[in-house]
Amino acid sequence: MRTTSNPAFRNLPTSGGSGNYAGFGQPYEAQQYGGYQGAPPTTGERPITIDDVVTKTATTLGVAILTGFVSAWLVLSGQVAPFALAVPGMLIGLVLALIIIFKRTPSGPMVLAYSAAEGVFLGAITGVFESIFPGIAWQAILGTFGVFGAMLVVYKTGAIRVTPRLTKWIIGATVGAAVLMLGNLVMGMFGVNMGLRDGGTLAIVFSLVVIGIAAFSFLLDFEAANEMIRGALPAKYAWLAAFGLMTTLVWLYLEILRLLSYFQND
């Protein structure tokens, strides 16, 4: 498995089929279970297919969108304070994410619970932004799925190939951005403004860079899912692929939401 910046894909088993199983980069006909040419997984379970990844990802996103809509509605209607939803959602999501990452066997219910918690968290944050900047939520949602779709097309067409060099660049950029955001948070506690999150020109440029990094991270996520399919891992690993894509989507959505608020904060 190629190295990835997404921790969800760090500890995948390497056993499986011959590596000839079709994935994201192959024609749909070759992705069907009957078209599998390699040896079946050593566990005796049905090997993962592209349909498994798509279905589990759609289910995971559906849960997040549903809980997010309810959370945002509760905040916008004034029935629940934003922090009463955002903080528990964030903490529960973080705990579940750590369990999923370090758990050896993928768990569908746990991934769905994580998705629900993230939906509550994102919905509460979105409700706050929407109350200040009406219409920003739909812009952020459309922008997020637009970037996701564009990067999927880029990956499938091979316009940008996931090479070891590109992988190292994306991982390095991700770590660098995380360090800067953490440093900005710490310095902010001491009253020092680094200008990365104040809505100024530097903040806009920084958000654009972070959005670019998140977008390119999708290429690593797609490649990781494709490696699962090529390696003929058990079908249950589709939940892990869905979890990995979900974490990147959450990151991208929050950054797009923040960037849009800069442009509307006149």
What's the short version?
The protein is mostly helical and 266 residues long. The chain is built from seven helices and no strands.
Question: What topology emerges from the helices and strands here?
Answer:
Layout (H helix, E strand, L loop, with lengths): L49 H27 L5 H21 L5 H25 L3 H22 L6 H26 L11 H30 L7 H27 L2
Report what the structure shows.
This protein has helices at residues 50-76, 82-102, 108-132, 136-157, 164-189, 201-230, 238-264. With 266 residues, it is mostly helical. It has one domain. Helix 1 packs across helix 7 (238-264). The protein is globular and about 55 Å long. This is Putative YccA/Bax inhibitor family protein. Keywords: Membrane, Transmembrane, Transmembrane helix.
